[in-house]
Amino acid sequence: MGFHTLDYIILVAYLIAVALFGILRRGKQQSASDYFLGHDQIPWWAVCFSIVAAETSTLTFISIPGLAYVTNLNFLQVTFGYLLGRIAVAYLFLPAYYKGELSTAYAFLEKRFGGKTRSLASVVFLFTRVAAEGVRLFAAAIPLKFVLGVDYPTAIILLAGIALVYTFAGGARGVIWVDALQMVIYLTGAVVAAVVLVNAHPGGWEAITRLASQEGKFSLINFGTWKDFWGTAYTLPAGLLGGAFLSMASHGTDQLIVQRLLATKSLAAGRKAIIGSGVIVILQMTLFMIVGLMLYGHYNGASVQSLGLVRADEVFPHYIIEGLPTGIAGFVIAGLTAVALSTLGGSISSMASSMVLDLYKPRAKVQLTPTKEVLYSRFATIIWAVLLVFSAFFFMNTTQTVVELALSIASFTYGGLLGTFLLGLLFKRPNQEDALAGFIGGIFVMVTVISLKLVAWTWFTLIGVLATLIIGGGLSLLGKRGNEGDTALP
Hints:
This protein is mostly helical. 74% of the residues lie in helices and 0% in strands. The chain has 18 helices and no strands.
């Protein structure tokens, strides 16, 4: 067992193939819209797969099996909330996005409130995304460092460089098609690992899961108690409500996902893509957690420390490198790399699109020609790839677990962002000043809540949304005010 020459060949061949595939699938790029939206010619199922790949980071691939290893299946309650949130996005957000040929999620805010709200949302998105993705890029470099025997900076630059190649040349179309391919690769890798685990254990499935079953690790539903209602993350109310609002924020207001939805051919296609992704995520998370329970049986319930590991996140990578046969280990590591690249490429493209379409183009003193739009878009792509590398360097010395760090960064702003969108979608009275005050106020509330550790993380987004709606909605009732943009719901 361990990593051998064949494994290295598979991994290197995969990395080269990914870059070439993204370039070949780029299609025509005659304007910034073509470059960032794929000219609206991408089928819904490819966008659906791309959404799943984009939101599935290396943290998910290695952390969810580790979470199941040390706990149980209660986390799956959150994934059902994810599906509910996506259904809300499909029927509440998407009609507004497809009305008026919007190029980014934040263009809606300009249409509804005004340019300042769009700019603020875009800037918040950019800073949040570059920090959160820096953490994810560092996490992706961890297994690559051990496999290739390089240092962290080299592993980080290698991953970012490959993602930059196909994102720069292929644009959103290249990113989406590469993501769709990589979803298939990494899920196949997880299935292969599961099959090997079962076949290698005397007694097969029943034997390898017996210990987990005896210790209650197959527990799925946790109703919780009033005493731990706010403090426990994985109860049914926290999972459904927290998961739904988190998914509404991440899939309804985050340009990383909305960019993909706007690349579909129609509202109906966008709805299929977003709801379908929710179903796939439930199945995917179930697979990852079952792998974790099988690892628990494989190692006979050994503690993380007794395995010579520091944290539960390392259990699955440890098995991949030490427990899988030659060739299969290379394929599964390629799947793990696929997860990293899918998130990384999508983040670079979404940040570049927000920079060009939300911040630069509306303020350009002269109208750009389509050729210059593409040139500036590619230049922005390079800028954000480089910034992501420096962000990952910054987090190399962190002592906090990468999962907690990435979650905390996103949680600071998701509530305020989603609350601002809902303020514009559901209410006609609030104007731009109300929206800006609500947005900023919601972020300050979240800084307080997270800093003081008042509630479990699953409640973060909901609290931020409520704070934004109360502040923005309350201010709109103080005086007679008119909207600066269109009315609320289309």
